[in-house]
Amino acid sequence: MLPFVGRRALTAIPTLFIVTLMVFAIQRSLPGDPALILAGEQQDPEVIAFIRERYRLDDPVPVQYLAWLGQLARGDLGRSLRTNERVLDLIGSKLPVTIELAVLSMLVALVIALPIGVLAAVRRGTAVDYGGTVLALTGLSVPNFWLGIMLILLVSVRLGWLPASGYVPLSEGVWENLRRMIMPAFVLGTGLAAVLMRQLRSSMLGVLRQDYVRTARAKGLRGAAVNVRHAARNALIPVVTILGLQLGALLSGAVLTEQVFTIPGFGKLVVDAVFNRDYAVVQGVVLVTATGYILINLLVDVAYAVLDPRIGAR
Question: Is the pTM value of this prediction over 0.85?
Answer without folding.
Answer: no
